[in-house]
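ok new one. same drill as before - structure tokens go in, u give me an amino acid for every spot. 206 of them this time. try not to just spam alanines like last time pls lmao
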């Protein structure tokens, strides 16, 4: 109903959640669907959960039959319903995904999977900094992503190609992320620095 008392969306839904003037998330028969601002069904009522609806990107992550996938806001499936969880990301086109106990990475802007869910962990190389407006994120430094396999960390590029082999140990949250052209990594319980090709630029003495 608008401010003039006119009915915009008929009273046929258990729940409605307008998140902009253009889109309304609604529940009917215990299933989620998406309406436009005039009540037209854009995404049918077939879904069980939502992990994000981003109007500016024209995408949403919904759950069906126990798995998450990605659709546009017109209801077209962009990535299949393969994932148990949508776990991290949302910046620079990247999103962490999970199947079972393994992690991977998708590029939602290019609508493709970059890394299959074969890794023990995936760490996106965001540098979070404080500004007067709050926390913000710099660009993904050097386009390298830290991934963990068989208990060791290495680095892949945005095409999923292994750049730095899996050889480094667990550390703090800030470790295994490139700051500029260097990353602090741990080998044999000692810290050192490597460059973006994996060359040692500060020995493992610390």
């Amino acid at each position: 109903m608008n401010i003039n008392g006119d009915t915009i969306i008929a009273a046929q839904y258990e729940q409605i959640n307008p998140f902009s003037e253009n889109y309304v998330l609604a529940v009917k028969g215990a299933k989620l669907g998406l309406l436009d601002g005039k009540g037209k069904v854009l995404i049918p009522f077939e879904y069980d959960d939502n992990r994000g609806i981003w109007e500016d990107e024209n995408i949403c992550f919904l759950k069906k039959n126990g798995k998450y996938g990605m659709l546009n806001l017109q209801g077209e499936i962009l990535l299949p319903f393969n994932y148990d969880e949508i776990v991290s990301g949302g910046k620079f086109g990247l999103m962490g995904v999970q199947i079972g106990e393994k992690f991977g990475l998708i590029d939602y802007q290019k609508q493709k999977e970059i890394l299959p869910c074969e890794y023990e962990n995936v760490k996106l190389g965001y540098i979070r900094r404080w500004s007067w407006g709050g926390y913000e994120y710099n660009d993904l430094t050097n386009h390298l992503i830290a991934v963990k396999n068989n208990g060791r960390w290495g680095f892949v590029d945005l095409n999923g190609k292994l750049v730095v082999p899996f050889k480094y140990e667990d550390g703090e949250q800030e470790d295994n992320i490139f700051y500029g052209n260097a990353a602090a990594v741990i080998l044999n319980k000692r810290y050192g620095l490597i460059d973006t090709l994996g060359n040692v630029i500060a020995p493992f003495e610390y």
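The CA atoms of residues 28 and 122 lie 36 Å apart. and btw The radius of gyration is 21 Å.
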